[in-house]
Amino acid sequence: MNPQNAVHPVQAHRASQLPTPHAAASQPDILAVLRQRLNQVLIGKNEPIELVLACLLARGHLLLDDLPGTGKTTLAKALAASLGGKLARIQCTPDLLPTDITGFNIFNPKSREFEFHPGPVFSDILLADELNRTTPRTQSALLEAMAERQVTIDNTVYTLSPSFFVIATQNPIDSHGAYPLPEAQLDRFTMRLEIGYPSREAQLRILEEAIGDPSHPASADPLLSRDELTTLQDRVTQIRVHPRIREYLVDLVEATRNDRAIHLGVSPRGMLLWQRTAQAWALLANRDYVTPSDLVRVGRPVLAVRILAAHNELFPAIDRIFSTVPAPEFK
Fold first, then answer.
1. Residue 125: what are its φ and ψ, rounded to 5°?
2. Which of 3, 106, 212, 235 is deepest in the core (most CB within 10 A)?
3. 192 and 127 assigned to the same domain
4. If you write DSSP's letter for every residue of 295-307 in order, what string do you get?
5. What pLDDT shows up at residue 11?
6. Predicted structure pTM score
7. Which spans in the chain are helix H?
8. Cβ atoms 102, 119 nearer than 8 A
9. What confidence tens digit (pLDDT) does each residue in 188-219 have?
10. Paired strand residues for 167
11. What tens digit of pLDDT does each residue of 237-262 get?
């Protein structure tokens, strides 16, 4: 199992221990259908798919970081195809310009006025393929869009879709021609997932399903309209977070800032995203409250994208934090 997705046994916590547990309304059947479709694309990766859905419901942005050929782009396309709204895709290359993402003003000689031509950022779902193949200057064109869902072009502010969702893929930073994403860019993402190679059984199933000409989930009809997605995202904000759970989250965040192996800890923005993602995870579990284990379940991908540590020290530092910071107990 990928250590990023594992749950530390020290932090295992039964949801029934929480005070005043009230079952949430039944999870919409549409989420079950969406799970099924994504599982057809990413075979044998149930937990990463749950984390992808949590990121979506938390109104976050997703960074898929893995070796080529492990299904990053295929998963992103299948998710985008499942959601109603406009899809735009950018194939990031070194010669890509910031205006190729945000758009630009061009002079119309007939009207003798400048006309704005929107870029792919004016979409509901933006798939940025191999984001770290483009230059830092172009990468920065997404900063305002991801944080505030707006872009400023020639001193004019343009509002983006309220459901604007970035799915970016990147290759390992030691790959040829890759530019490391700056810390400010990484902090705009809600989580970073490493899909990893499938199991032997999953690989045999992949080979079996590739025979013939089956319909591909990435080309299927959307399952969720933009209004339905917004409704689910609004439900996430109503998930209860007990004061002791919030204190536990602050303890975890402060531990990232004091750990000897971590050079840059979690920011307040990262803390808010962590809480919202835990709320989304609780909704996926058909609960209306957050447990300590929810924070742990989503903690690794949330921390992996925003704490700065040596590559071989990143996950040991995360494990150390979850092992040493005591979780609250409810009786």
1. -130, 125
2. 235
3. yes
4. HHHHHHHHHHTT-
5. 40
6. 0.83
7. 29-41, 46-57, 72-82, 99-102, 136-139, 143-148, 183-186, 200-209, 226-237, 243-258, 268-284, 292-304, 314-324
8. yes
9. 999 998 888 888 988 898 888 878 765 555 55
10. 62, 127
11. 999 999 999 999 999 999 999 988 89
**pLDDT tens, residue by residue, 151-192:** 999 889 999 998 899 999 887 655 566 778 888 888 899 999
Query: Does residue 130 lie within any of the structural domains?
Result: yes
Q: Looking at the structure, do residues 290 and 218 belong to the same domain, yes or no?
A: no
Task: Name the residue with tokens 């209004």.
Answer: 227
Token pair, residue 78, equals 């299948």
Tell me, yes or no, whether 53 and 167 share the same domain: yes
Write the CB contacts of 196 (distance below 8 Å, at least 6 apart in sequence): 2, 45, 66, 70
Provide the 3-class DSSP secondary structure of residue 159.
strand
Q: Identify whether residues 106 and 163 lie together within a single domain.
A: yes
75 and 129 in a single domain? The answer is yes
Nearest to residue 78, comparing CAs of 122, 54, 29, 43? 43
Query: Does one domain contain both 206 and 84?
Result: yes
